[in-house]
Structures are given as structure tokens and as C-alpha cells.
Amino acid sequence: MERLYIEEIINSVKGELILPEGYEYESSIFISSVCIDSRKARENTLFAAFEGKNVDGHEYINDAANKGATVALAEKRVDASIPVICVENVRKALNALAGYYISKLNSRVVVCTGSSGKTTTKDMLFEVFKQKYKTKKSLGNLNNTIGMPMSVFSLDAEDEYGIFEIGIGAPGQMDEICSVCPFDIAVVTMIGSAHIENLGTRGNIFKEKTKVFANLKDNESFAVVNMDDEFLSGVNSADIKRGNMITYAVDSEKKIADITARDVEYCFEKCYTEYRLCYKDQSARVRLNTLGVHNVSNSLAAAAAGIAAGIDIESIARGLGDFIPDAMRMKISTSEKSWATVISDVYNSNPEACKVALNVLNDMPAFRRIAVLGDMLELGNKTQKAHTDVGEYASAVADVIIGVGKYADYIVTGAAKSMPYKKLYAASTNAEAKEILDKLHLCQGDIVLVKGSRGVGMEVITQYLLNGEN
Question: What is the value of pTM for the model shown?
Fold first, then answer.
């Protein structure tokens, strides 16, 4: 992060400066980092004090100061040893500060959102863009109304592009994130059921997600549109207030799109996908270090953004080849314990993501296919039907199904429509699921898919399968 001086901060957040008694104020005070966790404060840090349900950041301002913090952003007047800038709302002030900060840089902004695939696509975007540009990406899951400004602060003057993931869980959050800054390129991967509990319908999710297209910077900006998605395929150039539209599709025979994948081939033994990336009269062979048509789609989104940014198709293919999936996302490994193949896709889950994971399981040659399916969270009144539908879908793929968690019985009920109960199991906990897996006597040739929402913590099942760790 580049320096921001205290007067710049006060003006950008429209705050009131409160000085400690006897403090000698100097306009040369500056920050070179921002944190929301006092334990991560260092010299010349701005500490943003958030009042949470369990912890009030205002109580930790002096702790941050002891670690070197220069100034704090707060909603309350507190007895602090460093200057405090008081504002009405720390979160909105942080957004305003991030907007001011990025306006001082020459960095262009690429954002990626969607119900599924956004983190994978963000990582693919990073690999593509760094082939030509000095690029940074948002780290981990810093993708919400706090994560977005924190990601912006990670940029330095020499960074030409920032690749930022956007996640929302309620109405209004996308508006708040879009208020930080306009976007040069906006990607929406797909419209599914994730967070439908708060957003109501997939139509509402579509409206919220596509607000990124309305926040494009100028006529040189691009909206990246997935023509394989039933909602996004209805977007046209008239829906883009500013900028251009570039489209992609895996199913190129049925859809007209700018970027397509042809001659797609999967190597299950070595866990990679090959295809021909096509744009106009150009093409390049891509080798992607993961499986699944959904990941081909994610890679096409990254390729389309790369084309929009002026990256040549060979460099795009090279960048996609550099992508390595996260250990909890469609990671395929061989068990040291049983020699069975384990597909770990436990970072998160929703009905659409679960079905594409089951498709990968279905495509892989196996002696037995075993689906270990955990709870899908934040589905509201659609929870029962969603889990029942996933169970029914899994029954056409798997030889054995183990439902795990609070909604395991719903999964089993759906699967039982076409599978005998002796091949179906409901485990209320991960520990019970491990006991059931032991009774299956896994062996070489078996493939086990482990899929569930992050809140269920199913990575413990993956680790148990791979090396017996509890």
C-alpha cells in the first residue's frame, strides 16, 4: 500500500479527528497499511474498529497502537493513545477511503462474482493477467463489504491490475461494494441458488449480481457474460450502461459466443483437462490442471477477460495452464490408507455446485462411486427440496450415498426414489460418516466424492480418507 496522509484520510471519510490529551498533531502523519484485527497492526497502520456481535474493536485500539498503529477509524469517542477519526459508519468510511485510495493509482480493476466458481475464476484470472501485467488478487475469501476495500488497500503504485472477488449474501451488499470504485472488467460466472435464503429467488440473485455490469467505468470497459447460463444468456449490449460485452460458452454448438472451448478431453488418471480455446480466427491449446465442464467454463471466463484486456491467446492459454486448484476445490488425490481416489470439493456447496461435482464423479471410471454429501447452507425455505433433489440427482451417479449433517435424511429420501436403502446412509456428524466409510472397506478403484458447505467442515472427512487423520 502507498502512503496516505492523515488529512487525506479525514477528508475522504468526512470524519472528525479526536486527538489524545497532550498529543502534538503533525500533518505528516501517514499510514501504509490498513487492518481490522489489532493483532495484525504494525508500524504506520490504520486500525478500523468494528463493533461486532461478540467483539468490539473499539476496545482494542490501544492494543493496535502498541503494535505501531498510527491512527484509528472508529464510531465511538474512546480514550486512545493515538489519533482517532470518528465517523458514523466505519464500514462505509472504509469503502470511501478505499475509493479515494484507488483513485490515486493507475490500477485497473477486474471483479468476479457469481453463485459458484468465483474464487476459482479469480485465481484463473490472476494467472492469465500476470502473463502481461503487474497484477494482484484478493486473498482468501476477502470478498464481502469489508473484504473488497481491504483488497483494494493491497495494491501498490506499480500494480496495473487488481483482481477482486465479490461475494454477497443479502440485498444491498452489491450496491455497497460497487460504491468503492467503478470496474474496468466485470465477470459473472453463473446464477444459482447460493444465499437464496436472504435473496429470495434466482431472479433476485441475477439482479444483484449483474449490478457489477452497471458499475463499469467507461466505454472501454467490458462485461464478461456466460452464454451457457439460463439467466445471463439473456443479457445483451443494451443492458450494459457503459462499456462493451464479451461472451463465452462451452456449449458452442448451441450458443453463439465470442470465446469457446472445442475438442474438450479429460484425463482422469492425471487429473487434467485439455481443450482448444477459440476466439475469432485464433485458437490455442489449453491444459487445465483440474476436471469438470464447470471448470472449463470458469477458464473461459478468465480467457474472455484476458482478451478484453489485450492479452494474446497464447499467453492466456499459458496462464490457464499455470492455474493450480485450491486443496479444498475439486482436488483429486489417492488415499494412502485404502488406495481409493478421493475428490475433495469441500470449500462450499449449493445445489448447482453439488450437481457439477457429481457430474465429475459420474465421468470418472470406477469400481464403486461413493458420494459423501453434506449440508448445503443458507437455502431458507428451499432447504428440504434442494437436498431432496440433490439426493435424487446423486442416485443416478453413485453406487453408495452418505448424507452428512442436519439435512442428511432429506438427501437419503431423494436418493431412495431410485436406490435401495441398503446403499444409503444418513450420518448426523462427520464422525458418524467416517465410521460408515470404514464399513465400506474402500479399495483401489473406488472413487469417493466429498462435498459440503464450508460451515459443515467436511475437510476432516477428506483428511481421514487420505491418511487416517482424525
Answer: 0.89
